[in-house]
Amino acid sequence: MNRRYAEKATVTALILSSALVLSGCPNQNGTATIRYEQLGACNGYKEGNNVVSSGPTAAYVLFKIHWLDNTNGKVNFAYDPARLFVSSLNAKPSLTTTSQLTQKIGVLATAPTTVSGGKNLGHEGYAVVIVPTANSPDPQIEANKTNYMLSYDNPTSNPGVLMDKKNSGQTQYQGVQDCLTKSW
């Protein structure tokens, strides 16, 4: 009878812990949401007689950060784009906003900002990450068939952060070999 009780208690504990994992633990500072979109990938660009490349087995993937919503935050949200990373990669290469690529394609890079608790801020900034691909003569093809999800390495002083990908169900993206030939 003790064994049966122990098994029942173990199952109950597993169910309860699973519910906590699925629902997430509430953050005492509230929750902020980063809404973003994956735009596509490219291999690099020409600059004069030089070629700037992501490498033979890598591609540039572009993201647009649409808004920072801290309406459910109880404290200010100190957004730092250097804390964004692609969650499916083993290493955590952060997105870059200082990349010459964002300057070359003529878009505004996502920038650090603070969003007050209870406020929402339209952002419209771009970020780039270099992702590894299989050995291919055209790595952007593989990257444009991959749905990359972003995560945020959040400090405890911030509200909790939810990542909301606008096109999360999309599995094909339109990319190009030369990053400068596309209007992002």
Automatic annotation (TrEMBL):
Signal peptide: 1-23
Keywords on record: Signal
Domain of life assignment: Bacteria
Name used for this protein in its record: Lipoprotein
Organism: Agrilutibacter niabensis
